[in-house]
């Protein structure tokens, strides 16, 4: 949801203008997450002789571009040519949860009018009212409606009442009072050049950039003294402060991380567990961010923080602390080398990221299968779950838990998985799964599907199932994400970075990943070999067939011109195509703000047929599979009610073409893979309707790419 970015340069001279440019660029890389306002905080002193500098906060409602203009207007008060050898700047894009979008409610939030402490925050503090009441009784005056301001004022309160505590200890004291989900980055005039960051239930990573190669592939975790475990509660609340008791089990999928064997230019101090920059000048730069897209242009060496980690940088040295140690907890944080490239998060010649990602599907599906499907021997191997296949094959049932588009990918493959595994397959929406407190058993295998790997409801469902002893399999597109790290094993879909809020290529890659899992489950069943061969041959043809569908873009644009002024749209299908209807309707809803509904054609006479008349646009998916006669029956019913159906059908299907008002022809493939081909015209329809309505296809209103709060 919100986007966090911070930049600390130590002995790397940088002008204020350059620092601000880095902060703004970081926010621009996070825009796809969704936001309604933005802000930055930097040192305000124009005198290089000042040992302590006040903090300037610049905030603006609206786009990052508006913030950039606001910063440019600050030339009278800020010397943009002032050079800093050591400086910490923090920046934030806000998605309103507490308080309307406004400059006052934007981040960074401050502790007092003197800006002694400032903080940026992603998440929701559930006990902020208790903290606010406590602080108001102590004389603190609040100026915003946010939960975040309570954090800034709480750290000042502790600073004013405690003696001889360092910045990191202050933050440790603060987070022990907080309940809810958060990632936080702090800056203070009392601790110039220092930065402290922490997280619980919300993603945060640190990029490390030095002039020298990296020598260590991990950072040790430091634990606070025993008396910190018994720190008294400062805030009287109705419940005890929450601390994470989850274990930090690492994913066994080698594709989830690429550990660096190169040289971390930081050395371990003799007296502490800090890492110090080495080299002639000991220069180092640190980048803190909500996700890797904001960091990759600066460095590919990153550390993903775990829940309740407190990362502190002082005099260029980075240390990672925890207040107490849990059983089976990892005592190190790995340095991961990101495989992402800067070109992958650029639009290139396309007008939007979504358009680029739709057309990238010819390549992304290949990347998902690369090294996993042997088309000559008909073998499928998913390295991330290979060691767990024996346990998975012995399970009682398979549960697939996800939200939104990821949920649709599970619906799309449920029928095939039931066929290939001969096991009960449940597909659940994560929020509903949790609401029902669904029974989960030790002999269940639970799959959690999420593009970002940070979806809050899916992550909570994962922890629910893990606590009941089920085997956890993560299917994500993001290296180092929370779901990736907390799963026992997993599959990385390798779709590449997806910037557009509406998921396109991640959907087709999730679809293929689940198909590959089904093929792997049935590799030892003689009765399934012909079916497996048919599906694998279909997978091999997919890239060329997707390319053929994309060639119909102009025809789809012409159709969209007839639809874009409509207020509602129905998408109908059944069997393997039902999930495609759900996904297509969701895309149209997300991007065009038009009411759209995916309807199971078998339910047409049980209600939805009442909506059909000559004014209601209907898209039907009718392909040559075993349900073709039933789908044609539904088409005839729509025609009988004066409907004018646009039909997505297979190439050369003259019978269907004659019955349809208009047709979009797609190549014929194996029935269980047809949804991958058929969804692309619907992705293009939603894209073109949105552009015809002059809407922002990459950032639809009220939506965020990574839903990290409930």
TrEMBL record:
| Keywords from the UniProt entry | Aminotransferase, Glutamine amidotransferase, Phosphoprotein, Repeat, Transferase
UniProt domain Glutamine amidotransferase type-2: residue ranges: 2-316
Q: Where is this region: Disordered?
A: 230-276
- Report whether Repeat shows up as a keyword of the record: yes
- SIS domain sequence ranges: 388-527, 559-700
One GO BP annotation here? protein N-linked glycosylation
Gene Ontology MF terms? carbohydrate derivative binding; glutamine-fructose-6-phosphate transaminase (isomerizing) activity
Residue spans of biased composition, Basic and acidic residues class? 246-259
Which InterPro entries does UniProt cross-reference here?
GATase_2_dom, GFAT, GFAT_N, GlmS/AgaS_SIS, GlmS/FrlB_SIS, Ntn_hydrolases_N, SIS_dom, SIS_dom_sf
Q: Which reaction is this enzyme known to catalyze?
A: D-fructose 6-phosphate + L-glutamine = D-glucosamine 6-phosphate + L-glutamate
| Protein name as catalogued | glutamine--fructose-6-phosphate transaminase (isomerizing)
**Upper lineage:** Eukaryota, Metazoa, Spiralia, Lophotrochozoa, Brachiopoda
